[in-house]
Please model this.
Amino acid sequence: MTDRHPIRLAVFASGSGSNFEQIVKSAHKGTLEAEIRLLVCDRPQAFALKRAEQLGIPSVCLQPKAFESKIAYEQAILEQLKMKEIDLIILAGYMRIIGPTLLTAYPDRLMNIHPSLLPAYPGRQGIQDAFKAGAEITGVTVHLVDEGIDTGPILAQETVAINPDDTIESLEEKIHAVEHVLFPLVIQTYIKKLKKEFIKP
Ligand code: GRF
Model:
């Protein structure tokens, strides 16, 4: 990373990729001062890949089952990241636990978004778990990634009310609407912090 170029991002996604799209659009608008260089995907049928094509963002789809181990899988990802000189990794609906290979290569350079107010409702079903528990408040958390599941240092949180007439679908919609605004903002704030730390007087 140098102070002379925009921070270069890779976004990891496994599914729809609506957050990925908002990140790319924010970068195009200039509200996010970053270059989105790569989408990394682990499922060939993920709609995120189609969005990447439509948005003109290079993508790579690597399936873990094609590799003999998780280490080999993550090393293959790492090669792609190195080729693109990626500074910061953004997990946007990437449904895998990050292993030591990527964590060691990108310390404090891996960010995730989770659809609950962590530490409540970690894991794959954050929205459904809050809804089924009858919670009145849930929300969105953006955090740095560590070796745990949704346990890294929290960067920002925003609450979302669960009203009596909400369904899982309406709650999902509200959560995604919050995510699409919050995530690019938090990434931008973090990038500014990284740049400030890099430029020493
Ligand atoms: C989001 O709700 C995010 O919080 C969670 O996975 C979902 C991804 O949605 N980690 P999308 O693929 O960005 O539409």
About this structure: The chain is about 40% helix and 20% strand. The chain has a mean pLDDT of 96. The pocket of 5-O-phosphono-beta-D-ribofuranosylamine is lined by residues 13, 15-20, 92-93, 113-115, 179 (CB under 6 Å).
